[in-house]
Amino acid sequence: MEIKTGQANMNSNLSIIMYHYVRDLENSRYPNIKGLDFKFFINQIEYLVKYYNVVTAEEVIHSIESGDSLPPKAALLTFDDGYIDHFTNVFPVLGNYNIQGSFYIPVKAIKEHTVLDVNKIHFILASTTTSEIIKYLKSLIINYSAEYEIQPFDYYYKKLAVANRYDNEEIIFIKRLLQVELVEELRNKIADDLFLQFVGIPEYLFAKDLYMSKEQLIQMRNSGMHIGSHGYDHYWWNQIEEEDLIQDIDKSLVFLNEIGVDMDNWTACYPYGSFSANAARILDGRGCKMAVTTRVNIAQLDKELRLFLPRLDTNDLPTEMNGATNEWYNKA
Ligand SMILES: [Zn+2]
Q: How many angstroms separate the Cα of 186 from the Cα of each of 42, 183, 225?
């Protein structure tokens, strides 16, 4: 693939900031969901507007293609997974400051009113205690062992329950079991069982509340927001067969076209950050102009490959702040 890079003596540093849930957590139905509280979001936007130059996806594409410099302290704001938060909370704030966000949409969730597995797990965890979930999981594993070739519960717990910097061992266990360890069909079934047991709202209705609608996306696009591909099924792009990957990307592009995205300047965001050389090659073949990952770093357009751009999580941002207050972050 042809990679164009900026000129070495010009600014090509770009802080690409990644957001997921942005909501008034305290007053929401699920105050324990792991998201950015709305008031901290507003503070962060005020901070970014003051100390950074928030650029558009189109300006970044232009810089990649022409080698023209970005403004100093350039930042691009990205919002993953098509949450209603982005229409209700984020969009008006960006409008107030006349800045652009880039929104990466899992199309199936919006078109077919399904809930992403990763979101099911978030809301299961936010609805009950981890010990209740684990108790129920134990019984489900016993029940499904008649139908599937699976190991005893203790085998999985020993293998998977290792805490990391974000989650304790029980939460890690639940996430890994349901995201990676079990075969896809079984982990979907178990996620559905847990969702029904602990969240108790029909998936179709829950999806309508959780994600934006197509009409809302059209409204945002018409107001200058950038809407990009995040796949159709929210698959791990580096783990599926090439044929399935091509289909997944193409189905997402049909949707982008339907909502009026400029198909000569489309961008992508790897679901779960699942980039690979092969996935990038397919994106490139479809004309993708840039793609973002979840690798943590400031992007450098003169060094980084344009289809593998790293990002900073909204919670990582304060570590990059130079000399400015980050009190709001410490309170988070
Ligand atoms: Zn995602």
A: 40, 6, 38
